[in-house]
């Protein structure tokens, strides 16, 4: 057997802890990367960030990053994919019309909300539908994947299923780019927070163990234009439902948007009746119904006159990462945290700091993405119960998936001891103890040098903090430091004294929030 280090590149010797007090040189990590005239990446000599006021190294409760175990491998193909992403984001912001805010009609379901930022796909109360837009221009076919760096040879696709995928509203372009990277899919917006694309069964498996931006996938069984409620019944009854469902308890969730003389409950009821009738006509069996905890969940969307019926493939939402053991008061949703890293264009060879990290969702997502760990290794997918899917094959593929061991330079800074403890608990649960440091630091005072600063800022509802003062002092530290780009999520973007280069408006529970991008 050959030397594994030779195959994986140079192993970094672990830096002694007191060595962290010295500035790191061109061959070390921690500085901001810069491009030379020949385009090669080199490390700029970083500033003495650990010796600056506000940064208390002795009180840092983190263990130093175990660099000995990690191997750093720059990934040019991955970098290319990120450059494409960045281009996409700029296009996205420039071409999408602002979303007019108006209240939705009666009967619209507020789907899957919880305390985390953003809503789980579905309906966004208080916002109107964003016009559907074909995002496929951004998705270069045959492109390398962002996460694996492997090049897709476009396989002959048997478009066995039309899929819907839910994601964070306002960040559909990020999810569409991921779908393109992972399975070469050409996704467009079905409605806010929901994408549609053609795929095959293998794609369903791959997305379920690799996607970091999606919440759930659904297979479309009926799609068409309707004028009245009975058209909903007729479309469902004519659909492929009898072939797609097992003889198991099912339930229907209706979501409606637009001006109709009936409610989403009426839609769900008509779909349910048509499903029972169609299944009985085809098989002679009456399907059992369970509205509380069905084995098979049907999603019925009526958006204006477009009716789409889909069967859930996922089960528990993919955003519910199993490492979230210790809950922050105001946690950011894991898929949103990962999307922010994508917006930043962060790559695993760049330094990353979250200066107000809370329970460290952003650093954890970064470390998991860099190691290519499966985000939901615990998932029992709903498609296991459906005809046409092979759950065993899915589990084999997932178990055979190999992780990487890059050297990482990620720091989670947090002022409060309670949340640093939470961050440590979650870091361990995620299995990325070596992936990032957890450090006590006050963002108003601590100096900051990093390629990327990605953070979910406090927004003041619970903290009562003077946000203008906090954001102002934090931005002063960014200006003084050596920072490549900032990506920040807040409900009060106007209090950040910067001119963002890009801004994504997203729902934040029932509030409006924005992700802003700034290059100091
Ligand atoms: C919105 S929360 C971040 C939540 C985190 N994204 C998560 O998922 O757990 C903002 C965090 O910033 C911290 N914070 C507030 N002011 C700070 C300061 N001046 N320096 C460092 N951290 C601060 C708060 O304690 C809180 O944990």
Automatic annotation (TrEMBL):
Domain of life: Archaea
Residues of the THUMP domain: 202-313
Gene Ontology biological-process annotations: tRNA processing
One GO MF term: rRNA (guanine-N7-)-methyltransferase activity
Compositional bias of kind Basic residues: 65-76
Keywords assigned by UniProt, alphabetized: Methyltransferase, RNA-binding, Transferase
InterPro entries cross-referenced by the UniProt entry: RlmKL-like_Mtase (IPR000241), RlmL_1st (IPR054170), SAM-dependent_MTases_sf (IPR029063), THUMP_dom (IPR004114)
Region (Disordered): 1-82, 103-129
Stretches with biased composition (Basic and acidic residues): 16-30, 53-64, 107-119
UniProt-recorded name of the protein: THUMP domain-containing protein
